[in-house]
Amino acid sequence: MKNSWSASRRGFLRGIMSPAMMPAAAAAQSGPAKAEPAPKIYLNEYTPKTMLVLPEHRPARAKFPIIDVHTHVSRFFGMQAFGAGPVNTPEPADMEKPRAEIRRIVSAMDQLNLKLLLNLTGGTGAVLERNIRELPGRHKGRFLVCTEPSYQKYADEGYPTWQADELARAKRAGAVGLKVIKSLGLVLRERITEGPLVKIDDPRFDPMWSACGELNLPVFIHIADPDAFFTPIDRFNERYDELQRRPEWGFYGADFPKKADLLAQRNRVIERHPKTTFVCLHVANHPENLGEVTGWLRRYPNMQCEVAARISELGRQPRQSQKFFDEFQDRIMFGTDVSGGLGLGLYGPYFRFFETLDEYFDYASAPIPPQGRWKIYGIGLPDAILKKVYHNNAARLLGLAAI
């Protein structure tokens, strides 16, 4: 039997190795003889669809009422621009159109369980008064408004004292905080638009920071931008898509300071003014390095933060984010940076990130992720922490009732 089996095996091997069988055997191993080459596509055409099959939870409404501390809904009534423009923009000729937009926003707030929106860019003077009149004035309990520094007057003699006094006038008008945009450190120059850049910790602003503490006006401060905006726009830049669309958002080269220098300037201001509360926007503008942000929050008890437009960063490091929210659950607030068009497309990913443990999902509804080509993971905050982040931390800061 053994010799018979061996002979049969030798015959089989001789058969498949014969010249007549070789082409067929090779074809069976290598696939089609003439495979079509993969089509070449541009990066902006590449929108892969995942093959993963995962549980999905898509909350259509926030689990608890939300205070969104980072919005710009006053844009419907005219924004106060920095630079060469007038200090106060004229009132829109047709006020009914922006008022209708705000009514639509309030309706969306009801659907999404958004209790209140804090409008950060309320302007100064007549612009501030108009925004207070149109937002909290017409929709009591749904909006609050912050004022802004008057950089147009920065070069005037006596500006430091004038700016501090202006904050007192803004509070009497109804402002609840001061918003500082990234113009400080990246745009404002010694002669407003000319000369060296003004540093964030310039002592001429000290009266302004001190006045905020004395008036109980928290400072909502945006310094710098994502780390990638301070590196070359090249093939190594993970936000290449975003910067290709908006190259003016890049701060690499020219006389722009390094991001680390800007953050250090901001932190020196926080340290110099311990009686003033600083809400450092966009996860202290450094969510790429939660370890460093953790160090700042431990060092500066008057520092808080919010999460607007940064779940894209937090969601790709879910374990680090869970630790971060656990340690600083009393000092992190909810924000989105929304300026209009409120809807589930914007807020839904936030709800999913905070309320579920879903994996590998989109942080935005755009076909191409707007900030970077990656997915995020939910951190499923416990209810006790979720209430604080969604509502109670902001309520305590703004003097409102907790839930």
Helix/strand layout:
Layout: H1 2-16, H2 22-30, E1 66-71, H3 96-112, E2 114-119, H4 125-134, E3 143-145, H5 159-173, E4 178-180, H6 183-186, H7 206-215, E5 219-221, H8 240-245, H9 259-272, E6 278-280, H10 281-285, H11 290-299, E7 303-306, H12 311-314, H13 318-327, E8 332-333, H14 344-355, H15 383-398
Parallel strand pairs: 1-2, 2-3, 4-5, 5-6, 6-7, 7-8
3D architecture notes:
With 403 residues, the protein is α/β, with parallel strands linked by helices. It has a single domain, classed as Metal-dependent hydrolases (TIM Barrel, Alpha-Beta Barrel). It is built from 15 helices and eight strands. Strand 2, helix 4 and strand 3 form a beta-alpha-beta unit. The N terminus is likely disordered.
Describe this structure in a few short sentences.
The protein is an alpha/beta fold and 403 residues long.
Question: Low-confidence stretches at least 5 residues in length (pLDDT < 50)?
Answer: 1-22, 24-28
Determine Rg (CA atoms, Å). 28 Å
* DSSP E strands, number: 8
Helix percent band:
25-40%
Largest sheet: 5 strands, parallel
- What is the succession of H and E elements? HHEHEHEHEHHEHHEHHEHHEHH
Give the CA-CA distance, first to last residue. Answer: 86 Å
Beta-strand percentage range: 5-15%
Q: For this structure, what is the CATH class?
A: Alpha Beta
Query: In what order do the strands lie side by side in the largest sheet?
Result: 4-5-6-7-8
**What is the oligomer described by this structure?**
single chain
Structural class assignment: alpha/beta
Q: What is the annotated CATH architecture?
A: Alpha-Beta Barrel
Mean pLDDT: 91
The number of domains = 1
Which geometry do the CA atoms define? globular
CATH topology: TIM Barrel
Summed up, the helix count is 15
